[in-house]
């Protein structure tokens, strides 16, 4: 019997890649507008290479970009970029269509909800809080709690312990086959692949289910629990 | 002949104390709402004492508050506070009434405009950029450029050098008598006290002028330059 759904956060609950792209695009345009004399492509290439080396959550990306390009920070241009980045990020930070009603329906069905994310605590919680999702989840496990990333069993087992449930009572949904599906399956959870959030063109996620909309979760739980409508 | 106006930033161009108060109030309410079990007064007292010891621009104020109160950061509660803080700050970050038309009028009169602020570069420029003021000023001197605070002559002299003007060709406007008026007067500038931004109940700012609205600057310049309307 499924008693809890464990969600990955980025690209499963929120469209993180869209958010990053929208924010970076806005920042690049604003910095060119403020006088940065480089092509949009060159600036994005630099930003992406910094994200690749420092991680996608790196908070000093523009400072580092200026130091590498100009040898020092141009605060006038950078501040134009940061303001544009923040405004675009806030505008683009939304749950996928159907997520909010699905969460409410799952709660009504008596299920517990959890998040297991590899993002740092502060950034994960900020994203949850911006979309007013911070009160939906009984358990939120981020990178800071375990210092281990999926597919390590550690974050999954910590979620089970805090939920006070066994692995076969939980269903894990995520967009990253090698992390979310492999890791959840290894500890004995049922798995749902969030096809709508897939950024790798995953052919075979090796999951129990494969969905194009989060609303499909409701029927999956009903089927698993043999509920007749 | 006055050829440039040098502005202090905080509490002269923007109502910084209002902004801080609005942002902190919103954050405290959000954190109590998210489960922080302390009185609003106690939380504000803690936040203010951290600002007093670390400086009003300190960016990790909530992290430090949680560590001092609970021994660790509660990310769920803190993120609610940060989101509320950011939204309230953006809403409250506005130039004083009359600032924008006054700047435009001064530019039309052929004057150069500058900022001399004790704030860190990044924060000063972010505030200017949020209100779309970043292109108005020919020269912006912040703490990072000189590592000296007003009333030191260093930031004033750097502004004069970059403006390529003499001290008696410049008029300094600011809300802090001991820093803005004393410092500008010492290098030989005319001074205007921004009474509307005064947070110290200053009795005698010892300035050449004392104004209740920034729009009064226009007539002061006309008078100084013997322009007949």
Low-pLDDT stretches of chain A are none
Order of neighbouring strands in the sheet with most strands of chain A: 3-2-1-4-5-6
DSSP strand content of chain A:
5-15%
Mean pLDDT of chain A: 96
Structural class designation of chain A: alpha/beta
**How is the quaternary structure best described?**
homodimer
| Helix coverage percent of chain A | 40-55%
Q: Shape of chain A, please? A: elongated
Main sheet summary of chain A: 6 strands, parallel
How many extended strands of chain A?
6
Tell me the span between the first and last alpha carbons of chain A: 17 Å
Order of helices and strands of chain A: EHHHHHEHEHHEHEEH
The most extensive contact between chains is: A-B, 23 and 23 residues
User: What is the tally of helical segments of chain A?
Assistant: 10
Work out the radius of gyration of chain A.
Answer: 19 Å
Molecular structure report:
- Two copies of one chain form a homodimer.
- Helix content of chain A is 51%, strand content 11%.
- Chain A has ten helices and six strands, in the order βαααααβαβααβαββα.
- In chain A, α1 (16-33) packs across α2, α1 (16-33) packs antiparallel against α4 and α2 crosses α3 (61-70).
- In chain A, 43% of the residues are buried.
- Chain A has helices at residues 16-33, 40-54, 61-70, 75-92, 99-108, 121-130, 143-146, 153-163, 177-187, 216-224, and strands at 4-7, 112-116, 139-141, 170-174, 190-194, 209-211.
- By secondary structure, chain A is α/β, with parallel strands linked by helices.
- The first copy, chain A, has a six-stranded parallel sheet, with helices on both faces.
- Chain A binds chain B through residues 34, 73, 75-76, 78-80, 82-83, 86, 121-122, 124-126, 128-130, 134-135, 140, 142, 144, and chain B through 34, 73, 75-76, 78-80, 82-83, 86, 121-122, 124-126, 128-130, 134-135, 140, 142, 144.
